[in-house]
C-alpha cells in the first residue's frame, strides 16, 4: 500500500502512550450538555432571522431539512464513536476507513470549522458585552472593541483589537485548563439556563400565533435561486436557508472528540450524540414555529437579535431583556464546546505525528493537554482579536459538511470491510443512514455560495501542501509501516 494510503486498524486506535492519554471523567449527562452547549447558541438566536429572509415562513421546512441531515449524521457518529472510542471524531474514523490523506483532509477541515466558530462566537459575544457595559455607563473606545479593518459608521474610527473577544477566549481556555470534568459541570449549569430562556420565549410568543403570518408559506421557492437586492446578489429559497441554518445544528460532533474522556464510551457516547441532537431539534422547531407565527417574517428577518426583537414587538420589554441576556449566557457554552473540540483535534493529529508532537502531551495531574489548549487559545485569540468576520458562518458550514460526509462514508466502508467487529450501538438501516448523510451533506454544500466553496478549497489546498511538507514525513504510521 502506498504511504499516503496507510490506514489505522480499529485496535491501533485503542493503544495509548503514558503521557498522551486523556483522563475518563465524563458521564452521559456531561456529554449531552456538551452537545447541547455546542448546538444551541448563536445559530438559533441569530440565524432564524437570516433563514426567514431567505425562505420566508418556510424557514420551518429549512430547519426540518437541516435537522434531518444532521440526525442521519448523528446516528452514523453514534455507531462509529462506540466502535472507535478514540479522540478526534471524524478525523480518526477517516484514518481507519479511508487512510491518512483523507484523515488529514477531514482534520484540516475540522480545524477550519472549529476555529471559525469559536472566533465568530467570541466576536458576537463581544458585541453583546460592549452593549451590556454601555448600559452600566462603562464605554470601551471603538479601537479596543473591534478588529483592525472595522470602521465605526458614526465616527469613522478604525478598530485595532477586539479586547473583549480576546478575553473571553482566554477565560474559556482557563476553564478547560482547570480540568475537563470541572468545565463540563459549569457547562451543564449554563445549558440549563439557556434552554429555560428559550422555553420562556416560546411561552411568550406562542399565544400570539397567527396563521396569517405563515402565508405565503414559500415565497421564494424551494430550490436555491440568486436574486438582486439593491446592489447585492443574494441566495434565496428553502435550500439556501437550510444551507445556512445547518450552522444552528452542528456541535454534537464535539461529543465524538470526547470519546477517550467518557467513563463508559460504549453506552454514553450514543446517548450523548443522539440525545443532544434530539433535544435541540425539538427546541428549534418550537422556537421557529413560535417566531414566524407571532410576527411576520419580514418584520424580524433583518434584526441581528430576532428573538429579542420579536418579544419586544409583543410589548414585553422585560422578557426581551431576559432573551438578550440569555444570548450572552449561550455564547460561552458554544465557545467551550467548540474550543474543547478544537483542542482534541489538535491533540489527536499531534499524537499521530501529522502536527507537531508536543501538542499531544497531557498533564498528569489535571488530565488535560495543556500545551494544546494554550496553543489553541493563542490562535483563536488572534483570529477573534483582529478579524472582521460577519459572513463566515457558511465557511464554517463547509468544513462541517466535509466532516459529516466523511462520517457517512466511513460508516459504509467499515460495514463492508469490518462487518464482524462488535458494535455496542448499531444504527438501524445503516446503508440508508450512510447514503442520506453523504447525499444530504453534498447537496447542502452545493447550496453554499460560490465564494464559500472557493475559500474552502483554497484552505484545503494550503493544508495538502503542509501535509506533504511535514505530516507525510513525521507520521507515526509511516514509521510503523517501515
TrEMBL record:
Output the Gene Ontology cellular-component terms.
membrane
Q: Which domain of life, per UniProt?
A: Bacteria
Q: Which GO terms describe its molecular function?
A: amino acid transmembrane transporter activity
Q: Where does this polypeptide localize?
A: Membrane
Chief subcellular location equals membrane
List the membrane topology term(s). Answer: Multi-pass membrane protein
Where, by residue number, does the polypeptide cross the bilayer?
A: 28-48, 60-78, 90-111, 116-140, 160-179, 186-209, 238-259, 271-299, 319-341, 368-389, 395-416, 428-448, 454-473
Q: Which Pfam families match?
A: AA_permease_2 (PF13520)
Q: Which residues form a coiled coil?
A: none
In terms of InterPro entries, this protein maps to: AA/rel_permease1
Keywords attached to this entry: Membrane, Transmembrane, Transmembrane helix, Transport
Q: Which PANTHER family match?
A: CATIONIC AMINO ACID TRANSPORTER 4 (PTHR43243:SF4), INNER MEMBRANE TRANSPORTER YGJI-RELATED (PTHR43243)
Name the record gives this protein: Amino acid permease
Q: Which organism is it from?
A: Candidatus Tokpelaia hoelldobleri
Lineage, highest ranks first: Bacteria, Pseudomonadati, Pseudomonadota, Alphaproteobacteria, Hyphomicrobiales
Amino acid at each position: 500500500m502506498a504511504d499516503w494510503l496507510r490506514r489505522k486498524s480499529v485496535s491501533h486506535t485503542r493503544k495509548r502512550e503514558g503521557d498522551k492519554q486523556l483522563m475518563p471523567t465524563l458521564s452521559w449527562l456531561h456529554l449531552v450538555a456538551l452537545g447541547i452547549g455546542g448546538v444551541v447558541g448563536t445559530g438559533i438566536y441569530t440565524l432564524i432571522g437570516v433563514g426567514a429572509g431567505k425562505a420566508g415562513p418556510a424557514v420551518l421546512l429549512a430547519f426540518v431539512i437541516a435537522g434531518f441531515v444532521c440526525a442521519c449524521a448523528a446516528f452514523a457518529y453514534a455507531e462509529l464513536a462506540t466502535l472507535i472510542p478514540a479522540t478526534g471524531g471524524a478525523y480518526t474514523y477517516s484514518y481507519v476507513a479511508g487512510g491518512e490523506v483523507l484523515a488529514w483532509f477531514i482534520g484540516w477541515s475540522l480545524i477550519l470549522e472549529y476555529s471559525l466558530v469559536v472566533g465568530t462566537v467570541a466576536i458576537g459575544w463581544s458585541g453583546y458585552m460592549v452593549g451590556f457595559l454601555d448600559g452600566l455607563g462603562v464605554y470601551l473606545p471603538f479601537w479596543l472593541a473591534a478588529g483592525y479593518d472595522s470602521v465605526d459608521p458614526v465616527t469613522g474610527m478604525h478598530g485595532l483589537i477586539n479586547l473583549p473577544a480576546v478575553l473571553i477566549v482566554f477565560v474559556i481556555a482557563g476553564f478547560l485548563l482547570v480540568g475537563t470534568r470541572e468545565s463540563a459541570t459549569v457547562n451543564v449549569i449554563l445549558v440549563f439556563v439557556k434552554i429555560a430562556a428559550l422555553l420562556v420565549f416560546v411561552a411568550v410568543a406562542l399565544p400570539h400565533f397567527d396563521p396569517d403570518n405563515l402565508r405565503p408559506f414559500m415565497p421564494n421557492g424551494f430550490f436555491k435561486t440568486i436574486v438582486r437586492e439593491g446592489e447585492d446578489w443574494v441566495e434565496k429559497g428553502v435550500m439556501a436557508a437550510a444551507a445556512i441554518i445547518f450552522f444552528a445544528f452542528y456541535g454534537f460532533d464535539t461529543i465524538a472528540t470526547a470519546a477517550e474522556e467518557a467513563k463508559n464510551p460504549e453506552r454514553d457516547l450514543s446517548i450523548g450524540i443522539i440525545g443532544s441532537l434530539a433535544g435541540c431539534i425539538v427546541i428549534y422547531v418550537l422556537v421557529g414555529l413560535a417566531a414566524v407565527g407571532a410576527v411576520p417574517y419580514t418584520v424580524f428577518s433583518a434584526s441581528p437579535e430576532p428573538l429579542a426583537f420579536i418579544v419586544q414587538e409583543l410589548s414585553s420589554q422585560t422578557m426581551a431583556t431576559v432573551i438578550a441576556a440569555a444570548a450572552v449566557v449561550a455564547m460561552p457554552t458554544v465557545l467551550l464546546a467548540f474550543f474543547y473540540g478544537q483542542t482534541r483535534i489538535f491533540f489527536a493529529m499531534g499524537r499521530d505525528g501529522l502536527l507537531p508532537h508536543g501538542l499531544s502531551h497531557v498533564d498528569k495531574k489535571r488530565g488535560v493537554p495543556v500545551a494544546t489548549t494554550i496553543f489553541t487559545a493563542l490562535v483563536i485569540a488572534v483570529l477573534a482579536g483582529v478579524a472582521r468576520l460577519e459572513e463566515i458562518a457558511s465557511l464554517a458550514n463547509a468544513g462541517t459538511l466535509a466532516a459529516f460526509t466523511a462520517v457517512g462514508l466511513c460508516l459504509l466502508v467499515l460495514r463492508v470491510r469490518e462487518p464482524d467487529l462488535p458494535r455496542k450501538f448499531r444504527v438501524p438501516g445503516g446503508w440508508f443512514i450512510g447514503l442520506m448523510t453523504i447525499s444530504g451533506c453534498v447537496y447542502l454544500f452545493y447550496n453554499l455560495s460560490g465564494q464559500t466553496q472557493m475559500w474552502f478549497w483554497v484552505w484545503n489546498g494550503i493544508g495538502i501542501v503542509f501535509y506533504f511538507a511535514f505530516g507525510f514525513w513525521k507520521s507515526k504510521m509511516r514509521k510503523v509501516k517501515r
